[in-house]
Amino acid sequence: MTKPITVLVVDNEPGFADLAGEMLERERDAIVAESAIDGEQALEALEEQSIDCIVSDYEMPKMTGLELLEQVREDDPDLPFILFTGRGSEEVASEAIAAGVTQYLQKESGEKQYALLANQITNAVSQYRTETELRESERRYERTLTTLHETTRDLMRAGTKRKIYRSAVDTAGEILDVPIAAAYTFEPTEGRLEHAASTRESRELVDPEMHFEQGEGHVWEVFSEGESAYYEDVTRDAEAKTLSQSELIVPLGTHGVLVAGTEDVDGFDETMTELLHILAANTEAALDRAEREQLLREHDRTLTQQNEELTRLNHTNEIVREINHSVAQASTRTEIETTVCERLADTERYCFAWIASSDDDPPEPTAWAGVDAVFIDQLRDDGTHAPEIDLVEETLETGDVQLVRNVLEADGWDRRRKEALTYGYQTLLAVPLTDTEREYGVLFVHVTGVDSIGDSELTVMGELGETIGHAIRSVERTRAMLTDSRLELELAIDDSRLLFNRFAEHVEGAATVEGVIERDDELVVFVSAPEGTDMTPLDQWASVDSVSVVSDGDDEILFEVTVTSSPFLETLRTYDVKLRTATTRDGTTVTLEVPQRVEARSLVEAIRDSYPETELEARRETTGSRSARQLDTHLEERLTEKQFEALQAAHYSGFFEWPRESTGEDLADALDVSPPTYHYHLRAAERKLVTLAFGGESG
Fold it and tell me: Does domain 5-134 have CATH number 3.40.50.2300?
């Protein structure tokens, strides 16, 4: 359908303008005629409505046709203006052409002139519209290029990929004037294309939750092949996963794709395609730049973190060296714990430190520095409700340093929010104080800031905890050797898993454990039982390596039982506890000699962990002879391992009794050595023992 042509006919002759208009409308259906009787009325009509062409008389009162043309040309230099006049002369024609009329036509009688006039109007308007559209197209293209240039600057200034995708789709929607413009980014972890951005106009048509898996839809196909594609009518493929009726999809390198869509079939021309490709190329370049900058930022951040961590680690190592030096000079456990806390608190790195002893139930602070007593009292008042108690248990159970990165946000630490803000800490370290066999407690170190502890520092603090544990064990063993006071515990153990109770299954009466010797990775247990007892079936047990008879007397038999492992004996060794006696009859009664440094409750609980049917029968404080204690210490220092083993075996087997309950040959067999070798070690041990007793020097 031809677009209507609105023609304004201006003539001062009454009725001529209307007549001319009617004639023109008859000649061309597309012409719609309007009339005006003078120039002023014509100018008013131009202001009120859109006019495609003016047909004006030349001679008119107030304003001639050429004067009207001059007024019109000020607003629109190209509007078709045909001078249709009855005054015909070369002078008028020359003046009209010079003034810039589109056509000049002299009025004549008859209807043929209107056919010619209508033809001139149609041609003039067609040319005018074509030139106008061309100029508008050029202006629109210039605006589009300007928009692309501005977008390119915005893309290159964008700090994140998200902003780049957002700018790209907004620009695509603006320059292409399409209802759908969206971007999809490739997520390598998921292996799929996910929605990155879309225009506001696309929200009803584009689902942000929609994604494209491998091999799914045209979008994935374009991305995987790396070549743009135009789908004139995507509905032809009923199984395709699409966004609109026709789609133009352009890949963004390895980053993703840019999609533009319309609800019309074949809705994109060459210009639109070219513009989207230019936009996509700029977007890809911006994404490449953003990715490089992100990698550089991450690299710089990593280097900065590494430098900061190295600085902190060097500082921590200096602190640890000072602590190790101080701990090495300490003579008591209290001195060690106090020194550690003071050294840690006396640094800019840490706020304060304190130690919770595992000997208490629940664990309580035994040493602290850098914090007032109010904080310590709060810990004690909270008792088992304190979050630190759970942290102590977790630390000792795992044997690893535990880290609370932010006390203000960590689960279960709400009750410490006030203290954290008051004392200025957020990070908390819990360091286990252990050696290879025992747990002594947990060192708590409070640190300013969040996530300020690196893996290297955690490792160093873990090594410090082991050093402190070994130091505590060393001073307590030294103290145990120098003190005469001992704690004696008598326990009744009815648990059937106890090795001694299993001995009783083969004894009618009471069996007595005479002593235990540690040899390499084995334990040698000397057991006396009534005459007629046969314990040889025990060597079929997995925990028993061998069973042999050491001596066979009139009333009892002495057996040597070599065991590979025993939780009970391992626990005694861990706590440095000596087994004095053990008698089996309807259960086992054992007497243990416990050093002062060992907390009796902890020992009993450790035994109960393996043997729940354990009861404490008696607890006695004993005082040994100082000279005997010194003799025992010197004897262990002067005797070799083989000499000490030979002397122990002779003592436990009744070799020194009269009459002798065992012979040297029996003991040699029990210890798997030749009789001469055994007698050599025994004689050497006896000589050193006598020399010590009489105050001489052993040779």
Answer: yes
**Pick from 340, 459, 323: which is nearest to 403 by CA?**
459
CATH tag, 330-481: 3.30.450.40
Q: By C-alpha distance, which of 43, 110, 45 is closest to 72?
A: 43
Q: Where are the domains of the chain?
A: 5-134, 158-294, 330-481, 484-624, 625-699
pLDDT by residue (tens digit) across 637-654?
677 877 788 788 778 777
83-86 contacts, C-beta under 8 A, 24 or more apart:
83/56, 83/57, 83/58, 84/11, 84/20, 84/55, 84/56, 84/57, 84/117, 85/57, 85/58, 85/59, 86/57, 86/58, 86/59
Is pLDDT at 54 greater than 90 in this prediction? yes
Same fold, 158-294 and 625-699: no
List, edge to edge, every strand of the sheet that includes 439-447: 364-369, 352-357, 439-447, 427-434, 402-404
**416-448 tens-digit pLDDT:** 888 888 888 989 999 999 887 778 899 999 998
Average pLDDT over residues 21-36: 91
What predicted TM-score, i.e. pTM, was given to this entire model?
0.42
548-570 confidence digits (pLDDT tens): 887 776 677 888 888 877 788 88
> What is the C-alpha separation between 69 and 63, in angstroms, rounded?
10
Q: What pLDDT shows up at residue 241?
A: 61
Between CA 533 and CA 527 the distance in angstroms is 11
User: Which residue shows structure tokens 């060597």?
Assistant: 539
The answer on pLDDT for 243 being more than 70 is: no
Class of domain 158-294: alpha beta
pLDDT tens digit string along 469-498?
Answer: 888 888 877 766 655 567 888 888 888 788
Spatial contact of 533 and 563, defined as CB atoms under 8 Å apart = no
Partners of 544 in the β-ladder: 563
* Tokens of residue 48, six digits: 């009120």
Q: Which of 105, 125, 118, 124 is nearest to 21 (CA)?
A: 118
Neighbours of 163 (CB within 10 A): 16
Long-range CB pairs of 386-393 (<8 Å, 24+ gap) are: 386/362, 386/415, 387/412, 387/413, 387/415, 387/416, 388/356, 388/430, 388/444, 389/362, 389/363, 391/428, 391/430, 391/442, 392/356, 392/358, 392/363, 392/430, 392/441, 392/442
What value does the mean pLDDT of the chain take? 82
| Sheet with strand 256-262: strands edge to edge | 211-212, 192-198, 180-187, 256-262, 246-251, 229-231
> In terms of Cα–Cα distance, which of 123, 127, 72 is closest to 101?
72
Split at pLDDT 50, 70, 90, the class of 626 is: very low
Tell me the three state secondary structure of residue 330.
Answer: coil
**207-211, 259-263, 387-391 — which one is most confidently predicted on average?**
387-391
- Asked if 364 contacts 500 with a C-beta cutoff of 8 angstroms, the reply is no
Q: Please, how many CA atoms are within 13 Å of residue 321, restricted to the half-sphere of its CB?
A: 6
Residue 698 has pLDDT above 50, yes or no: no
Q: Residue 215 above 80 pLDDT?
A: yes
> How far apart are the C-alpha atoms of 602 and 128, rounded to whole Å?
105
Question: Could you tell me the pLDDT band of residue 631, with boundaries at 50, 70 and 90?
Answer: low
Q: In this predicted structure, what is the pLDDT of residue 127? A: 92
- Residue 30 tokens read as 């597309």
- 656 is written with which tokens? 């020194």
Contacts of 344 (CB under 8 A, 6+ apart): 319, 323, 350, 352, 353, 369, 370, 445
Q: For 625-699, give the CATH class.
A: mainly alpha
CA 357 from centroid of its chain's CA atoms: 33
